[in-house]
Structure formats: C-alpha cells, structure tokens
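for the writeup, i need someone to sanity check this before i put it in the appendix. the sequnce is what the collaborator sent (i think, or maybe the updated version? ugh). structure was predicted straight from it, no edits. if anything looks off just tell me and ill rerun, i have time this weekend
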Amino acid sequence: MTFNELLNEVTADRPHFGHREHIHLTWLAVTRHGVAAAIPLVSEGIQQTARYAGAPQKYHATMSRAWVELVGFHVTSHPGGDFATWAAANPALLDKRLLSRFYRSTTLASEAARRGWVAPDLTPFPLA
C-alpha cells in the first residue's frame, strides 16, 4: 500500500488531519508493512506531502521516524483489533507532546534532527 492510499483511508471520514490521524496512518503502515518498511513509507510520504503543500520546512525527519518506532513498539505490545480499540489501549500516543519524554526540546529543534535521524537523548525508546 502506498502512503497516499493510507492517507485516503484515514481521511475518508475525517474533516481534518491532526495528530490522531497521523497516529492512525502510522498504525496502518506499521500493522500492514512492519516497522522497518513503515519508516521510509511514512517519512517519505510526509515529506512529499509537505513539499506539495508548499511547506517543506514542516517535515521533521526525527519526529517522523520516532513516531513510527513508538507506534511499532505499541503495536507489538498490544496487537490486533481495530485502530479505535488499539488507540484506547495506548492513550499516551495520542499526546503529541510524548516525544518530550525521550528528547530534549533543543535536540528536536536542531537542524540535525530536522534533516536526519537523531536518537533519543533523555531516555531510549522501549524495545519490542
């Protein structure tokens, strides 16, 4: 499945695309393709979407990958079911400030983190 197909599936009945929808799209990518394949699928899709919208500066490489990794961990820990059930079992992922548990704000604000992967510098991600 392509990024656009996943995006269309998530936005079919949604009037806007916010954090919950980002997580839903990431959940679909991870459950259908696995974490390793979902990282470039989601990252490249978001980057292309930002470019198409005329806002390439909105793409953030570390954030894109970090969310895929976190969703991937929680998919492994709580597999099965539909997105609504999974999201209810993993409410922390619906908090867009979750990355602040793993990263200093200065790290996420850095140009290095915007352009490429930077590992968490406060505490490591949980591992499946």
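The mean pLDDT is 92. The two ends are 24 Å apart (CA to CA).
thx in advance!!
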